[in-house]
Amino acid sequence: MNEWEVTLFFKAVQHATSVARAYINRGSTDFFEAVFDELQRIKLMVTGKPIALQAFVPGVNLLVMNADMDGAAAMGVCRSVIKHNVPDYSKIPNDTPPEKIAPWFMKICWRHGKEPVHGFRALVSTEDHAILMDFVYINSEEGLAKFSAFVKGLGVRKIIDWWTHKEINTWIIPCLVKSQSLIPAAIWDGFGVAVGSSTARPAAAINV
Q1: Domain definitions of the chain by residue range
Q2: CA separation, residue 206 to residues 6, 20, 134 (Å)
Q3: Residues 183-196 as b or e (16 or more Cβ within 10 Å = b)
Q4: Which residues, at least 6 apart from 68, have a Cβ–Cβ distance to it below 8 Å?
Q5: Which among 11, 36, 102, 184 could bridge 171 via Cys, Cβ 3.0 to 4.6 Å?
Q6: How many Å is the Cα radius of gyration of the chain?
Q7: How far is Cα 78 from Cα 104, in angstroms, rounded to an integer?
Q8: 92, 138 in Cβ contact below 8 A?
């Protein structure tokens, strides 16, 4: 039995509060979609409003969702979130696949993103390991291409497989690397005042 927790972080008071906790024994995308749909149902029942993100719904201040690299959970949440999309506002079609939805609002925890790289320390030189550790700071498409070539040039199967996994699962890199994300830079960097709002509403993040 695993625990799945949802926490809200409110920037204005630098405070995080757990708002939901589920004990689960499944791990499919369909299952996590159902879990988040149920959370949405309860939120609507109690408050009359969905858990809505600013990328998809106008007039809200929930900016990003922080997550680990569990693909089933991430894609399940994306399927659920898009059900409350307002396409005339977001310019994002409702039939957009979940892997294309994630870069609009999801950030992967860098600790989870970098964790496997620590295990590569004995496989490469100190200099090359430092380059691998800094992949989250890639700042352009050209830089991304150079890093991919660098990884392949190392010729270490374990490291190549690690990076190939991220290239195949196309939602991961944009959720780890700011330059590849569709989240505005000001939001990515600090969850400040809601970008584009006419009033200084405090911004918030949700952690799953």
Answers
A1: 2-105+183-207, 112-168
A2: 7, 11, 25
A3: beeebbeebebbee
A4: 108, 109, 112
A5: 102
A6: 18
A7: 10
A8: no
Give whole-number Cα distances, 95 to 16, 37, 83, 92, 163, in Å. 33, 17, 9, 8, 28
Q: Report the pLDDT value the prediction gives residue 9, as an integer from 0 to 100.
A: 75
Specify the amino acid at residue 129.
Answer: H
Q: Which of 95, 116, 112, 96 is nearest to 104 (CA)?
A: 96
Looking at residue 121, the DSSP 8-state letter turns out to be T
Residue type at position 105: F
Paired tokens of 101: 């939805």
Question: Tokens in use for 159?
Answer: 């490291």
| pLDDT (tens digit per residue) in 29-82 | 999 999 999 988 998 899 888 888 999 999 888 889 888 888 999 999 999 999
Count CA within 13 A, CB hemisphere, residue 61. Answer: 17
- Write the burial class of residue 27 (CB in 10 Å: 0-12 exposed, 13-18 middle, 19+ buried): middle
**CA atoms of 109 and 119, how far apart (whole Å):** 18
